Amino acid sequence: MTMGLIQVATMVFTKLFFDACFGKKEPRAAFFGAFLYVTCPYRWFMAYHQGDLSMTLGWALLPLYAWAVLRLSSAEKGKWFYVLAGAAALAGIGYAHFVLFGTAAAFTCLWAICRKKPMALFSVAGGSVLFLLGLHQLGRLAFSDVYDVWDLVGYSIMPKGYRLGDYFNVYAFREGHPGMGLGLMIGLGAMLWLRFVEGRKAEKDVLRFFPWVAALLCVLSFRAFPWEWVQRMGAPFLRLVGAIGTPATFWGLACGCLCVPAGRALGMLVDGLDGTKA
User: Fold this and answer.
1) Looking at residue 225, what DSSP letter applies?
2) CA dist list (Å): 82 to 10, 17, 88, 117, 206
3) pLDDT tens track for 201-252
4) What is the distance between the alpha carbons of residues 64 and 62, in angstroms, rounded to a whole number?
5) Region at 172 (left for phi over 0; alpha for psi -120 to 50; beta for the rest)
6) Could you give the CA distance from residue 241 to residue 128 in angstroms, rounded to a whole number?
7) Are 247 and 225 within 8 A, CB to CB?
8) Cα separation, 277 vs 272, whole angstroms
């Protein structure tokens, strides 16, 4: 029952985000983007194969947080409502999984700096305050030996990273390494077709931002990314990187980001086929 409620919340929050992202002018793009996110192979793997409630809840709250930040960046009135909504969603993400919290906060700061949206930083600050208890526990993990019973010290996460072929898996995959899936693969193919064959580009800032975020996350998930070098920078890094568990988490987030451009590409193709848009 709990997992079912989380899935319903995921659908509602995902619809909110993609409707805000594409608006009423591109309803099909919003539909395809939400569909790709809800059916993302990594999300289903975490929810139903591993039964990870914390990670599944974090994935449910990510679209809500992205919706609040996006609305905060464009709304003329009620900005503080979106600040509070974003802060609450970010704190919930943090209590669900600290890796999702850190990733969402880091890229929100990058968005605020690159796109000159300083109000987005208030959501990060508010979420950090609400997640203060979790940050305190992370500090204890990094700077004390209270959690050494978890045997995180000396633990390398590099062997759990993705190989190149793992990214393109559809049905069969190694344990913990689901690929992008057929739907997302078709959407990305449509995006490349529209970009290089028809010469169409993404006009909105948000549509140009998500592919770059996905590329960075993909690099972090790669088996050859030097996480061991990061761990050698000191005991705090050694413990925190070990607590990440697996770089596969970053690939899952990359797939979630790719749902935005892939969904729009599919929407544009369908609109073109039935003559809705030239």
Assistant:
1) S
2) 19, 13, 10, 13, 17
3) 555 666 788 999 999 999 999 999 999 898 888 888 888 888 888 999 999 9
4) 5
5) beta
6) 20
7) yes
8) 6
